[in-house]
């Protein structure tokens, strides 16, 4: 459902909230596992949305989701094609394993649905290119599940970086270190450790961190070199094909260097763990990932007050924006260009870590 702008203007001049005058957006979720059930919670909280359909190949997960959405009495199916072909569905959330995102999102777009597609948009350049083409050809909203774009602390920090607070950005140093692997018998254990299904740690998880770095740099990398390995959890779980550590050096335009490391064996007590994004500029630096980002000037003056306090954002702000983009033409928080660029940045890094060769953005062959 894409309401004409006229409708929005009429609604916005009255005192009534927009949603009260609009028909509900009939929503479906494909993949009601860990993430899909969390997204479903968010959908259920939206006054302008109803849950029309739920889909999963695992009956227990489907039943659980149907129970939590029982107020809307959704149809259930194990066949995702029934979802995208259902004329009584306006919006589709895709929360299946990463290797399935592209095919499902494209089919939904081609059937005239608005799509909220979990990250990564795709795990190969060909998948990403195909989603880009389908999203651009569609008049519907496509939002990638890069939900950090909807967290105020990040958007305010980026606004200040783009406003010149740091001077010119000259280097970014970031990491995503965890204290352990995802549980080997967890809800995603049947696909996550298979690189052909998840894309690996960088593409499946660090795509969030890489997206924030691109946002801060206001660019995407032009090349990458790196090294990935499986040194700690060798063959755990059995048949594992994803790396458990890796290091990449990306180059942004104008020789801006971006250094990224990841691992899943950083002891809790060891300093410098977790996630950070140090953005260095000609006037000073900040850690974009800090709970309370602070600007540290180079000229020896005192650090500036905290730029943006960590606030309790609406955890479903990204979903709120997705629906606002559909109903009222509000800004799309992570459109196809953002989602595809994040995925391609991760794919570029993964290819470099795997081939041990300098890999260029152009070699991915995707036109954005
Ligand atoms: N944005 C975020 O912060 C975030 C967080 C966690 C996961 N995710 C993403 O969400 C996606 C799902 O991750 P998860 O942790 O929920 O995994 P999960 O394994 O818990 O859930 C995936 C679900 O998809 C179902 N599924 C698989 N094939 C299907 C098919 N052909 N048709 C219908 N259903 C099918 C599975 O049965 C499962 O219930 C992944 O892409 C992951 O990267 C995003």
Polypeptide structure, described:
- By secondary structure, the protein is an alpha/beta fold.
- Helices cover 35% and strands 20% of the residues.
- It has an eight-stranded mixed β-sheet.
- α3 links the parallel β1 and β2.
- α10 packs across α12.
- It folds into two domains: 164 residues, Rossmann fold (3-Layer(aba) Sandwich), CATH 3.40.50; 182 residues, 2-Layer Sandwich (Dihydrodipicolinate Reductase, domain 2).
- The radius of gyration is 21 Å and the shape is globular.
- The site of nicotinamide-adenine-dinucleotide (NAD) has 25 residues, from α3.
Question: Low-confidence runs (pLDDT<50, min 5 residues)?
Answer: 1-20
CATH architecture of the largest domain: 2-Layer Sandwich
CATH homologous superfamily of the largest domain, by name? Dihydrodipicolinate Reductase, domain 2
Name the overall outline: globular
Q: Give a count of the beta strands, DSSP E runs of length 2 or more.
A: 14
Q: What is the H/E order? A: HHEHEHEHEHEHEHEHHEEEEEEHHEH
Instruction: Tell me the helix content.
Output: 25-40%
Mean pLDDT value: 93
Give a short summary of the structure.
The protein has helices at 5-13, 18-21, 34-44, 59-68, 80-84, 101-110, 125-137, 152-162, 195-198, 201-217, 317-328, 336-355, 361-364, and strands at residues 25-30, 49-55, 75-77, 91-94, 114-117, 142-144, 169-177, 223-229, 245-251, 257-263, 275-281, 284-287, 295-297, 359-360.
